[in-house]
Each structure stands twice: as C-alpha cells, then as structure tokens.
Design brief:
The complex is a heterodimer of chains A (about 600) and B (about 550). Chain A has about 600 residues and is α/β, with parallel strands linked by helices. In chain A, about 60% of the residues lie in helices and about 10% in strands. In chain A, a hairpin with a 2-residue loop joins strand 4 and strand 5. The chains are: A alpha/beta (about 600), B alpha/beta (about 550). At the A-B interface, helix 2, helix 3, helix 4, helix 7 and helix 8 of A face helix 2, helix 4, helix 6, helix 7 and helix 8 of B.
Chain lengths: ~600, ~550
C-alpha cells in the first residue's frame, strides 16, 4: 500500500465529478449570467449618471431606467441563490457516492481489516473527511472556472469601447494565471503553515490535557501551564516568519486590483481634460464609458480574490481525498463464496485438513498446516499464548479469512457454501461487547426480524432481564456504553442475548469473560451452560476452570497445532499444555 | 450573549494588539471606499471640466490624482499589515486562552473530568477553546469595522447634504441591523441541528463498522447499512435547508448592495437637481455606498458563527464549573513516616445519566492499616475497587466517605504539593508526553542531571530505544505524538523510571508489570522494590510471582477486604 500523493488525490477527485457535472455546469452558468447581469447593471448606472450630469435629464424621466436596474439586481440575487443551491447539490451527490464507496469498500475488506484501526478513525473518514469535500465542489470548483471567464468577458467588452482601458486590464490579465499559481502555491503555503501551526498547538494542548493526571502527580501541572505558553510563543514566532512572506502574494493581487482602478481613473480624467488623446478610436471618451469602465475594474479581480478565500476548501478536500483514496486502493482478497446451502437442522461438525492461513499477501502464515476434527455438539476450548492464531482460527471458521487446505463443515466444503447461509448457523460472542447506539430491543434484534417475546426470551436466557428491569423504559430504553448506564459485564450479557436469540448450530466464543468481574462472569458462564447440547461450542479461553469443563482442547502455538485431546489427558501428557497451564496458574484471575 | 461575557473579559489583556488590528481593518475598508468614490468624483469632475477648454486648463488634477494613487497604495499596505497584526494577535490570544483554561482545569476533580477523557470529548474541548479565540478575528473586528464604516460614511456624506447622510445611515444601517439578526437565527437553529445530525451519523457509521462481524453473522448487514443511510439523508436534508438559507442570505447581500446604490443615486439625483450638491459629488456618494457594502460582507459569516461560539462557551463554562478539589494547608511534617491508615472508607460514583446506574457502591467500609515501610499487595478481580481505592488515596477522586490518613494526618489536610511530594505512583496507563525523553523523565525530578537520567534509562532497559545512537542523543529522542511511539512494555519502563527518579516516601503501583516479559518483569520489580525497600509500598497485581517479595497480601472483592 503506497502513500497517495497530493496530485493523485486531486486527479482522482476530479475524476469523481462526472455524476454531478450538470449541477456544476449549472452553477458555473449561473455565475456567468450573474457576471453578465452585473455588466448590464454597471452600464445602466453609468447611463443614468451620464444622462443626468451631461444631458441635464431629470431623474423623473429616468424612472424606467431606475426600475430596470432594480429588476436586474433582483435577477442577480436570484442567480446568486441558484448558484448556492446548484453548487450544494453538486457537492451532495459526490458526498453520497463517495460515502457509499467507502462503506462498500470497508464491507468488502471485512471486519478484520476494520479492526486494524480504531473504529473511530473509520467513522471520521466516513463523516468528517467526506464532509470536507463539500465546499471544494460546491464553491471552489465553480469559482475556479469563473475566475478565468469573468475577467475574459470584461476584457472582451472593454476593448471595443476603449482600447487603453482594455490594455490596462489586459496588461494585468496575463498575470491572472500567475496569480492563480501564486494563490495556489503561496497562499496555499500560508494557509497550510497557519493550519499546521494551529494543529500542532492543538495537539500539544490535547497531549497535556490527557496527561493532566500524570502532571498533577508529579507536581508539574503549574510548570506545564507555563511551558504551554512558551510553546505557543515559539510556534507563533516561527509561523509569523513564514506568513510574513506568504501574505505578500495575496498583497500583490490586492495591489494590482487597486492600482488598476487608480490608473484607469487618472487616464480617464486626463482624457476628459484633453491631456491624453488616445484609446477611444478617435471618438473621445464619454462620461458613460468612463463610469462603466470604472465600475468594471473592481469586478475584474473579484472572482480571483473570491477564489483565494475558498482555497482553504481545496487543500482540506485534497487532504481528505488522499486518505479516502488510500483506503479505496487497498486490495481486497477474493473471498470464497460458494452457492451450496446446508439444511437448517443439520448439526455442525468441523473437519480441517492441512489448513493454512496467510496474513497479508506474502506475509508470514498465521496458521500453518492445521488438521483436526470437531464432532457435532462437542464443547471445544482453543488455548495458546497471545498471537498463537486462536482468533485467526475462529475468524476463518466464520468465513472472514481466506485459507488454503480443506475445511469441511457438516460434510460440505466451507468454500463451496454460501457465506450468508453458513453464517446463519453461527453465533459469535467476542471479548469486548458491542453495544450500538439504540434501544435494548435494537441491540438484541440487531436488524433481524425478532418480535418482543423472542427478545425477552433471549435476554432471560442470557441472565440479562434484571438489567432491563432496572432501566426506565424496559426494552425501549436507550443503551449507553461504559460510563453511561451499562457496565462492561452488563453489556456482555446483552451481547450474549443477541448471540443466542436465534437457535444456532455453532457457537463461537472469543474470551467471553476476559474483561468481566466475577459476578458477571458467573452469570455469563451459567447462561452458556444452558445452551442446547446439540450445538457445537468453540471457546477461546485463558481460564483454567473453563478449560476443565470442555470435551476437547486444541492448543495453538505460533500458528501450529501443538496439542489436541481431552483436558484431562493433555494435562498429564502434553508438554506444551503443561507449560501453558503452569503459566496460567501464575495469574490470580482464576481463583 | 451572556455565555460569552466571562470570555470577553479575557480579551482585555491583549487589547493593544487587537485594537491596532481593528484600526488597520477599518483603514483598509476606508481606503478602498475612498479609492472608488474619489475615482468616481474625479472622472465626473474632469468630464464636466473638459466640456470647455478654459475649465479644462484650470482644473487641478494633481491633488485628486495623488489622492487616488495614495488610496490605492494605502489600501494595499494596510491590508497587508492588518493580516499580519491580526494573525499575530490571534496566536497570542490562543496561547493565552489555552494556558488560562489549563490553569482553570487544574484543580478540578477527576470524577467529573473522567467524562472528558474519551479522546473525542477532549478533542471537542480543544475545538471549543479554539472557537473562542476566533471570536476576535471573525466577529469583533468585522462588526466594529462595519459599524464605524457606516457611521463615518454617513457623517462624510452628511457633510455634503443631510439627505445623503441620513439616506446612507438608513440604507446601510438597515442592513447592519437586519443581517446579524437573520444570520444569527439561521446559524443557531440549523447549525445546531446539523451538528447533532453529524454526531448521529458518526455514531451510526461507528455502529455499522464496529458491528460488521456481528451483522454479517446475523445476516443484517443491509439493515444496519440502511440505518446509516437514513441518518445520512436526514443530515443532507438539514444541510440543504441551511444551504437554501445561505443562498437567501447571499441574495439579500446582492439586493442590499445593489438597491442601496440605486436608491442612493435617486436621492442624490434629487439633491443634484435642487442644486444642493454637484454632479461629481452625486457620483461619489453612489460609488461610496456601493464600495461601502464591502464592510458588511463578513457579517453573515460572523453571525452564523456566533451561535457556534456561544455553544462552545457554554460547554466550557459547564466544564469549569465542575467541583474542585480542596487541598489543605498542611506541609510535610519533619518526622514523616509512611504510615497509611484507611478508616471505614466507602465510595460510589455519582450517576452520570441521572436515573438508573446510580448507587452502585464501589467500596464498602474498607479499613486498612499499613505501617510505615510495609510492602502490601492488593489482589482482586477486575472491578473489585482496587483502582478506586488508589485513586482515593491519591485524591484523584472526590466523594470519599470515611477517612484516609498518611503519617497520622488526614490526606485532605495536606497541600497539593506536599501530598504529591510524598507519593510516587505508577498508574495503570502511562501517559507519554509529546516531548523529549529527557522532559518525560525530568518531570519526576526536575533537577536531575543528564548522567543520572542515563543511568536510570539503563537500569530500566529503555536504552534499547536508540541502540544505534549515542548516549547523549537518546535523551533528546522525541516521544509521543509526532515522535517515537512507545510499546506497552516501554511505557511501563518509562513509568518505572519516573518512579525511581522521584524516590518519594510512598510508592503506589497499579499493575506496574503488565506488558513486560517475565524476565524483565522480575528484574524491574526487584529493582524498584529495592529502591523503595525502606518505604511504604502498595501494589496491585495479578501475578503470583510478585507475592513472595511482599510483606502482606490483601484480597478484595465486591468493594470489601476479604
């Protein structure tokens, strides 16, 4: 997985625009119409003034022109409104499609890849980073087109009226691409430095807040409050040095914008006074032309200045696109996906033959050459040191890893089965209970069609009814995770209810009691005792007591199967199991 | 606005730089207005003068010409310096606000602050503080500049004709009053709705992604996806509403600027026809009003932002009003011995959500006497209250029932510096500061010399961090965010190194050896217990191997000693 460059990200982002092209075009078109209407407004104002000052026309006889100008202004307002709406639409469509693409990709990559990073970082990508694209598409892109088109139109209009004025515009026009680059590079640099400095300061502040407890214990908090100020001062110095230079680029733009007005005014004044006699194709400059041109001058640079204010949107969007593209470029390994289905009542036996699981492509094997068989209805413990491959094994059985070798479940090849069909037979309970933001009912039913009585039954079997009874709205109470109204132990019992809400033939438990206190552990284990004897149960565990009550124990070490047998026989005969058990006795958790 | 008051006062400290920035902003606007207005006046006046050769000859074009050039240079320069000064001032404010907030946060009890420990909430806290320092740049400066521009412009034009002066004041003043109200309302309501929906979408996406394994197993992936998508479209609905209103706002600005100029022209034309003002002045007043609207441009953004800032301010106030820990006046007594006595201590966390989870007692009537110099091991399952007891001794939690004494004096009587001078703590989680290794260690003993630090680093086995580099450079190694990330084991070593450096009277360890391999575990535990041989030690552990070295073993369950 290679890093995505800014350029690639920008190119990719531009490639995503096709579904929204028409909205963008509409936004640009409205911007253009607005520009043209402004020309008309300027011409009308110039005409009214010319009429009154030079021709001594009374304002009462120009009422129609006044009203017309008002009408044009109303139309411009309408265009402005339309620009906002169409731009927003354009952004919305892109956001929807990119959000969809990210979620599809994550779905395809599967839960194991999702677990590689804190889930919060994924949700930040799905929400915040996609939101960053909005202003870039809605505002920056249309403005970029307008920053080129509007000055061009103004030049085209100005030249036939007065070539000197046209030249004054044109003289700075070739600079527009230069400005765009300047705005693009220098102002962007200024922007980036500024935000970098702010971010780093924010990071520093956050770091000290997080470490407040430690600072206090070492009597350092007061001192650190000083150093916070020093660090900020230091950042300020360095950043201001950069900004001093970087601001110059936009100042150059400001300079041209104001100087061209000044030159134009002086040129026009001198022409009127007869000192200058060129520019108007021999016809002489009228006040109308003069005022019209003067009104156009600020508008010539305005689109470019607006672009500068949206530049920040671009750098944010490109930054977000880099991260998004990095995710979307990740390779998905082909998943086994067969079509065969199992009969619902068929008990699940499992037979693995030379099962090997490769981690990432070319990485070391997570599971090496495993062969074992598990009978239907057996209670099996999988033990081994951390990193031995226990979770990989259960994840493979659930169809989340690709494998080499053979796995037969209920006599069928796992790779020939439809995964949806196979997973209907499994329930799973992990170490950290998952509580979603919703009611008890939603947490247990988890999107399945379960009625209230089924949910209640599941909760009762999971020893979780007492939790529901404490809650104000019963099944409809909103659940909040740790620190809210649930402890870890209670959350695990809710998760257990979810797992056993529908009858299954294979129950997979991945250290279900590792983070529980003794009371909750007992309740969870009691609930598990009562599972249908026909159901096969595979438990990954570290607890000695749990191991003793199993029919079978599989021990893994470095991805290899090092012991397979009943707990009683292994405890006596198997050297690795004995060593492992001795290690567990060193822990006091089991007593 | 009352939420903002306590924070507004903070600005006083930097009023100098801030008012310079504001003056420059005002100057920029006035120069730019002057440039256009004077240009309009100039070309109209010259056009009139040019009608006859005589007036053309006598027309003084030097002063207006110089004025036009001066305004254009002045605008450029003042804009440049305005940006410099205001950015500089913002940085200063930021530094100051943060350290102020940090100081305010210091005495707060961790019971309440625990809520903010989740990274997301803490991030929001930081963002809230940031929102306050933007207040000046985005709100004050533009609003005050706009008011002054309108006032000065009305006054200036009023000098030529009262009608023009009052007209300008009425036209621009109207927008000056209307825009803030509209955009404040708009930003407040839909901004809040948007903010909530964003949070909800984040939560739904989190549920969907975290629950991917479960939902695949239960065949409900599509349903869960639907939940996210429904929220997404609700969010988009809210955003659309906001964007429509923003569009209306922008349209209003166009109408405001355009119509004001037209009405101004009509009024000025009346004055012109009555001979009150000249033609050039008529043009000047129209151009001035047209350019003057530039000053009102930032208002919509400023007031949309105000709602957000108010929210931030009220959230911060809520944090700052949390209960503070009160420390006593007692210094460390001369004859201090590390005798700790815990007398009938109970504790329960206050309920956070109000109704239900309240009243779970974490500790119930614990009494424990630890003579000076005793090494005590504390055992028990997760959730039995061991760590809570530790936090009560270190006064990180308030709400203690009962009494804890150290050296025969209640811990509540000690000054903060005395109490923490007596205690060395190795917490369950080590915070690695984003700073050099030297800084990370020196916080335990600020006066420590480099060779001393290097010795400790070797003792705890942190020298492997920079195996390839020289001894000196390892101390400058940057750790934490933006530097070397320490593994769990290395973090423990750092914490142990800090405790060794501090060498206080009492050592408290909360699963100090977690994450270390058995060999280093034994080595390090022996080392630290040797260093604290004569001192009182309380150690929470899960490992049997440690118990042989302890003088006494206590087991806890369900908030009691058993």
């Amino acid at each position: 997985m290679s890093r995505i460059s800014e350029k690639q990200a920008y190119k990719w982002l531009m490639g995503q625009l096709s579904p929204t092209r028409s909205w963008l075009m509409a936004s640009i078109a409205l911007g253009l119409i607005n520009g043209l209407l402004f020309l008309a407004q300027a011409a009308l104002l110039a005409k009214i003034i010319h009429q009154m000052v030079m021709e001594d026309t009374l304002r009462e006889s120009l009422v129609n022109d006044f009203l017309l100008t008002g009408g044009i202004i109303a139309l411009r307002a309408l265009c402005h409104w339309g620009r906002e709406i169409t731009g927003f639409r354009a952004g919305l469509i892109i956001k929807e499609s990119i959000r969809g693409a990210i979620l599809n990709k994550l779905k395809a990559l599967g839960p194991l890849v999702i677990a590689e990073q804190p889930a919060g970082s994924w949700s930040t990508m799905v929400v915040e980073q996609v939101e960053e694209l909005q202003d870039f598409i809605a505002r920056y892109l249309p403005q970029m087109a307008l920053a080129v088109m509007i000055p061009l139109i103004i030049i085209v209009v100005a030249f036939p009226m007065n070539w000197t004025a046209g030249l004054i515009f044109l003289g700075t026009a070739p600079l527009i691409p230069v400005f765009m680059a300047l705005v693009g590079m220098k102002a962007a640099e200024a922007n980036r430095r500024n935000f970098q400095a702010l971010n780093r300061l924010g990071g520093f502040f956050l770091d000290r807040l997080q470490g407040m407890e430690t600072l206090r214990l070492f009597k350092r908090a007061r001192y650190e409050h000083q150093s916070l100020e020093w660090a900020s001062e230091d950042f300020r110095h360095k950043t201001m040095q950069v900004l001093r230079l970087a601001f110059l680029s936009s100042t150059v733009l400001e300079f041209f914008a104001s100087v061209s007005i000044a030159i134009l005014a002086v040129y026009l004044g001198m022409s009127f006074l007869g000192y200058l006699n060129f520019g108007s194709y021999g016809a002489g400059v009228s006040l109308y032309t003069g005022l019209f041109l003067l009104l156009l001058a600020p508008e010539f640079y305005q689109p470019l200045r607006d672009l500068g204010t949206h530049y920040h949107a671009k750098s944010k969007a490109v930054g977000a696109a880099e991260l998004i593209l990095e995710l979307l470029n990740r390779e998905e390994s082909e998943r086994h996906q067969g079509k065969e289905t199992l009969a619902l009542e068929a008990p699940v036996s499992i037979a693995a033959d030379s099962l090997t699981v490769q981690g990432s492509a070319g990485g070391r094997a997570l599971l090496k050459d495993l062969s074992f068989s598990i009978g239907a209805g057996e209670r099996v413990a999988i033990i081994g040191p951390s990193g031995a491959g226990k979770s990989t094994l259960v994840n493979t059985l659930m169809g989340f890893w690709n494998y080499q070798g053979d796995i037969k479940v209920a006599g069928e090849n796992l790779s020939d089965l439809s995964m949806d069909n196979w997973r209907k037979r499994i329930a799973w309970l992990g170490q950290q209970p998952l509580i979603i933001h919703g009611t008890v009912y939603e947490n247990v039913s988890f999107g399945r069609d379960l009625d209230e009585s089924q949910v209640k039954l599941a909760l009762a079997r999971a020893q979780a009814m007492e939790i529901v009874e404490q809650l104000p709205d019963g099944l409809n109470s909103l659940l909040q995770e740790q620190g809210g109204n649930l402890s870890v132990g209670q959350a695990q019992r809710i998760a257990l209810a979810r797992a056993i809400a529908e009858p299954v033939k294979l129950l997979i438990l991945d250290e279900p009691t590792a983070s529980l206190d003794s009371y909750n552990e007992r309740l969870v284990l009691d609930a598990l005792e009562a599972i249908d004897p026909e159901c096969t149960v595979i438990t990954v565990t570290h607890r000695l007591k749990q191991i003793d009550s199993m029919n079978r124990v599989l021990m893994l070490e470095n991805g290899q199967l090092v012991a397979d047998g009943s707990p009683q026989s292994l405890k006596q005969d198997s050297a690795p199991v004995k060593a492992f058990m001795a290690g567990l006795k060193g822990s006091l958790d089991d007593e | 606005m009352s939420e903002l008051l306590p924070y507004l006062k903070l600005y006083r400290k930097h009023w100098g730089a801030l008012s310079v920035g504001m003056l420059l902003a005002l100057a920029t606007l006035l120069f730019s207005l002057g440039l256009l207005a004077l240009s309009g006046w100039f070309i109209t006046a010259t056009a009139l003068a040019g009608l006859t050769a005589a007036t053309a000859q006598t027309f003084d074009f030097f002063s207006p010409g110089a004025g036009v050039r001066g305004f254009s240079i002045g605008r450029t320069a003042s804009r440049y310096f305005e940006r410099l000064v205001s950015h500089d001032a913002t940085f200063k404010l930021l530094a100051w606000l943060r350290s102020w907030f940090f100081e305010k946060l210091l005495p707060l009890s961790l019971t309440q602050l625990k809520r903010y420990r989740k990274a997301e909430l803490l991030n929001r806290l930081v963002a809230d503080v940031d929102a306050l320092d933007q207040l000046y740049l985005r709100l004050f400066s533009p609003v005050i500049a706009a008011i002054l521009v309108v006032a000065l412009l009305s006054l200036g034009l009023g000098f030529f004709s009262p009608v023009l002066g009052w007209g300008t004041l009425a036209l621009m003043g109207f927008w000056l009053l209307v825009l803030p109200v509209i955009f404040y309302r708009l930003g407040y309501k839909s901004g809040r709705a948007q903010c909530e929906l964003l949070g909800e979408l984040r939560q739904k996406a989190l549920d969907y992604l975290q629950g991917m394994a479960e939902s695949r197993i239960y065949g409900s992936e599509a349903r869960m996806r639907e939940r996210t998508e429904t929220t997404e479209s609700r969010l988009h609905g809210a955003q659309q509403k906001m964007s429509r209103l923003e569009g209306v706002g922008g349209a209003l600005m166009v109408i405001g600027a355009g119509l004001s100029a037209v009405i101004m022209l009509y009024l000025a034309a009346g004055e012109y026809q009555q001979g009150v003002i000249s033609g050039p002045v008529m043009v000047m007043s129209v151009f001035a009003v047209l350019a003057g609207f530039e000053a009102l441009m930032p208002l919509p953004g400023a007031f949309q932002f105000l709602g957000h800032t108010q929210l931030a301010a009220s959230r911060l106030t809520e944090v700052l009003e949390e209960e503070a820990i009160q420390f006593g006046e007692q210094a460390i007594p001369e004859s201090f011995k590390g005798h700790i006595s815990i007398q009938d201590v109970s504790f329960q966390y206050p309920s956070l959500s109000g109704s239900d989870a309240a009243g779970v007692k974490i500790l119930e009537g614990i009494s424990l006497d630890i003579p000076a110099g005793q090494h005590l091991a504390l055992l028990g399952k997760t959730g039995c209250g061991k760590s809570t007891l530790i936090r009560l001794i270190t006064r990180q939690l308030t709400g203690l029932e009962g009494r804890i004494e150290m050296g025969g004096i209640s811990i509540a009587s000690y000054t903060e510096s005395a109490l923490y001078g007596l205690l060395a703590v190795i917490p369950q989680q080590t915070h690695v500061f984003s700073a050099s290794l030297r800084e990370n260690l020196k916080m335990a003993r600020p006066e420590a010399q480099d060779d001393e630090l290097l010795e400790i680093i070797k003792q705890v086995g942190l020298d492997s961090l920079a195996a390839a580099e020289g001894d000196e450079s390892i101390l400058s190694l940057w750790l934490g965010q933006g530097g070397v990330a320490l593994s769990g084991g290395e973090q423990r070593r750092l914490a142990i190194a800090r405790a060794l450096l501090k060498n206080a009277e009492v050592l408290i360890m909360d699963e100090a050896s977690e994450g270390l391999d058995p060999v280093s575990e034994e080595l390090l535990m022996n080392r630290i217990l040797d260093a604290y041989r004569e001192k009182t030690v309380i150690m929470i552990t899960h490992k049997k191997a440690m118990l042989d070295r302890m003088d006494r073993v206590i087991r806890m369950d369900g908030g009691r000693v058993i």
